[in-house]
Design brief:
Layout: H1 2-17, E1 25-28, H2 32-41, E2 46-49, H3 51-60, H4 67-81, H5 86-101, H6 107-120, H7 140-154, H8 161-181, H9 192-204, E3 211-214, E4 217-219, H10 229-240
Helix pairs in contact: 1-2, 3-4, 5-6
Organism: Rotaria magnacalcarata
Protein name: MULE transposase domain-containing protein
C-alpha cells in the first residue's frame, strides 16, 4: 500500500513539475510498512520520525517513574533532542543511559526508553534538531488534518476500501467548497501585543552575546539559555570538523 502511494507521488510530481522527483527526508511514525517502502523506493532519503510522537509516548509511560523524578527525566529527553549532530546525539544518548541506570527508582523507564527508542525505534534519533536543517521537527500540520478526517468523516472507525473511497470523495468536495469561501492565508497575523514585545526585545537583549555564525546567520541567546552562545557555537564548530 505504501509502495503504491510513494510510486504515485513520484509519478504525479514528475508529470506536474517536469523534472525528476527526489526525496531527501521522509517523516512518519514507526510503522514497519512505511519503513520498508521507504527503504525500497527511497533508500537515499533520511528517515525522520516526528518528535511529538516520541515525547508523547514517553509521557504515557511516566507512571514508571516516581512523580518527584519525572520533571528531570522529561528535561533530559528534551535536552537530548536539541543535539545538532549525529555524533553529539549518540554521545548524549550513551551518557543519558549511564545516568539513568545509576538510579534504581527509574530503572523500568530507563529499560523502556532504551528498548523502544534506542533499539527498536531508533528512527526518532534522526529527528533531533540537527537532523534536517531548515525543516520541521514535527508533522503537526499533517496530524491536524488527520485528526479532522477521524473526527468528521471516519469517526475513528476502520472502513472497508469501498466505504473509505466514498468518504474521500466527500472530503475532497467539502475541502474544495471551503477553499472558495475562506481565503488562503499567505502570512501569519501579528497581534499588537507581539509587535510591542518585538520592539522591546532588541533593547533588552545583551548584544555582546549575539555572535556571527555564517553568511547572514547569527546565534542569539534565549531567555532561559543553559549555555552561552559562544560555548554553543564552539561546540557546533568542533562537531563539524
Amino acid at each position: 500500500c505504501y509502495k503504491d502511494l510513494f510510486n504515485q507521488l513520484q509519478l504525479i510530481s514528475t508529470q506536474e513539475n517536469n523534472r525528476p522527483f527526489y526525496i531527501n527526508f521522509i517523516m512518519a511514525d514507526g510503522a514497519p510498512g512505511i519503513r520498508k517502502a521507504q527503504k525500497d523506493l527511497f533508500p537515499g532519503a533520511k528517515r525522520l520520525m516526528c518528535w511529538a510522537h516520541v515525547i508523547r509516548k514517553c509521557h504515557e509511560h511516566r507512571k514508571l517513574v516516581p512523580k518527584d523524578k519525572w520533571n528531570q527525566i522529561d528535561l533530559d529527553i528534551h535536552d537530548l533532542q536539541l543535539s545538532f549532530s549525529d555524533s553529539l546525539f549518540q554521545c548524549g544518548a550513551s551518557l543519558l543511559m549511564k545516568k539513568w541506570s545509576s538510579d534504581t527508582l527509574i530503572k523500568q523507564f530507563q529499560e523502556y526508553f532504551y528498548d523502544q527508542w534506542i533499539i527498536k525505534l531508533p528512527l526518532w534519533r534522526e529527528k533531533y534538531e540537527g537532523a534536517g536543517i531548515n525543516i520541521p521537527s514535527t508533522n503537526n500540520g499533517c496530524e491536524s488534518l488527520n485528526g479532522k478526517i477521524k473526527q468528521q468523516y471516519t469517526l475513528r472507525n476502520e472502513l472497508h476500501l469501498s466505504s473509505f473511497l466514498s468518504k474521500i470523495e466527500q472530503m475532497l468536495h467539502d475541502w474544495s467548497t471551503n477553499s472558495l469561501l475562506n481565503d488562503f492565508v499567505t502570512k501569519p497575523s501579528i497581534s499588537t501585543t507581539l509587535e510591542l514585545i518585538s520592539i522591546k526585545w532588541p533593547n533588552s537583549i545583551d548584544k555582546i552575546s549575539i555572535l556571527h555564525w555564517f553568511d547572514s546567520w547569527y546565534t542569539v541567546p534565549s531567555s532561559n539559555s543553559l549555555i552561552a552562545p559562544a560555548v554553543w557555537l564552539q561546540m557546533y564548530q568542533q562537531q563539524q570538523q
